[in-house]
Amino acid sequence: MKNTRNFCIIAHIDHGKSTLADRMLEVTDTLNARDMENQVLDSMDLEKEKGITIKSHAIQMDYVYKGEKYTLNLIDTPGHVDFSYEVSRAIASCEGAILIVDATQGIQAQTISNLYLAIEHDLEIIPVLNKIDMDSAMVDVVSDQVVDLLGCKPEEILLASGKTGQGVKEVLDAIVERIPAPKGDPEAPLQALIFDSVFNSFRGIIAYFKVVNGSIKKGDKVKFFNTGKEYEADEIGVLKMKMHPRAEIPCGSVGYIISGIKSAVEVKVGDTITHLNRPCQEAIAGFEEVKPMVFAGMYPVETDQYEELRASLEKFQLNDASFVFEPESSLALGFGFRCGFLGLLHLEIVQERLFREFNMDVITTVPNVSYKVYTTQGEVMDVHNPSGLPAPTLIDRIEEPYIRAQVISRSDYYGPIMKLCLDKRGILINQHYLTADRLELTYEMPLSEIVFDFYDKLKSISKGYASFDYHVIGFKDAKLVKLDILLNGDPADALSSLIHADHAYDFGRKMCEKLKELIPRQQFDIAIQAAVGAKIIARETVKAVRKDVTAKCYGGDISRKRKLLEKQKQGKKRMRQIGTVEVPQSAFMAVLKLD
After folding, report:
1. What sign does the CA torsion over 170, 171, 176, 177 have?
2. pTM here?
3. Based on the structure, what is the number of domains in the chain?
4. How far, in Å, CA of 409 to CA of 443, rounded?
5. Sign of CA dihedral 369, 372, 375, 379
6. How does pLDDT run across 405-453, given as a tens digit for each residue?
7. Do 359 and 305 fall into the same domain?
8. 173 and 60 belong to one structural domain
């Protein structure tokens, strides 16, 4: 145990975590040159395409330091705020963290929030300045920022370059010297914390765990503490680039277990594995339950694929524990699931992964957040969906979730960022100059306002410089109304939304204009209306496709033309009574991109 080190790499997006991890794998000869590629730990195609890390990846390296062999367990983590749950799980299974700061950009919002997570878990933190080989690197300035943030000595900060490999050996030496060995009792009953799991169609469910106390051998009878299910450890081993079977995983180490589990419901991330004949007395305090921020409905494109979608979501949930879902139904779309996500990027990634990994094409409704509704009878309801709202006469008040948002940016963009936050009903709590030209703004604002396009707008007005991080602080009273979209007088429940009363008119008008472009013309006029309660606030009409019935009347009396037009009008009227309006999938997606 004294020669084992468990550590993770934390940083803001794009500060070079995965590239530095590549260099570490090279220095420790974990991979041969043939298998080496850029960002080798980002194993998903989607991660390589988007250039972001989505999953935490665990890998074991062997390193010789002063003639002794050490086992280093590295977990590379994502940097985006939507995947912060992955980071919290990685931090819970480590004793130390490497905090990477980009020497060209300095400290960003996620750097600070991930750092606080690590400090809460009492991790030993090693600050590293990355990208020092670049001409625009400001080593002294950024070093001062890190000293201010961590309160460490300037000589404790390591300088490295993930691209050239400079300084990587020093980082590995510091891991051995500074990060403590895992604490645990090898003789105690087995306690192992599951921090991730993945579905394999040949071998069933594979769970990744960290042994906190005791040890586990191949063929042991084990039980999962929270679910109470019993299994046999068919295969255990360590995670290198591929899985390497071992006869025993000792105390303090990280490994995987295959025990022929078929059902996805039986494995919970954060559960404890223990021996059947000598169980531990209590489970390890796992991670707090994840709270989804954004809700959206997911429906199968073909209604008979409902059960397939359920099976796919259950398998997907193994690999992404921050994703939650429950069944629901909609008038327009049939049976589907109400899904909870940590943010819009998370929603986009889930949709894309369902398509690629499970071949499931889904329709996603407009994302929204969850509201607390107080009725006149004194009841409190959680409403995730506008269609679940009680009648307006029964509502006493509605409360919506508020967040505390931190924006860090160059002071040149101070004005536009202030305007953006005020437009989104933000209240300025604090402003703080980190350096002469870097500013931290703290706002309180409704979560529903940042769900749609806040992040994109923030990036574009600050030319990509601003970074953003948030956490939920509670619920506050809100002046909300339900905005319905009516197609020929019938409400389209998948398009309805809860919105602040001041924004309802603008949003309703934009929705109608957008739908007018997207709904194909039919044999009859389609009236698209936005309504709040019984009051229509906006209307557009998709004109009917008409045949020119007056073409054969050349010259002659006007009454002959009118007779033909009247005849056509009667036909259109009858058609409208039996016709239904088809709403294309692009209409649901376009609502997200309203601007």
Report:
1. positive
2. 0.70
3. 5
4. 14
5. positive
6. 888 887 888 888 888 888 888 888 888 887 777 788 898 988 888 776 6
7. yes
8. yes
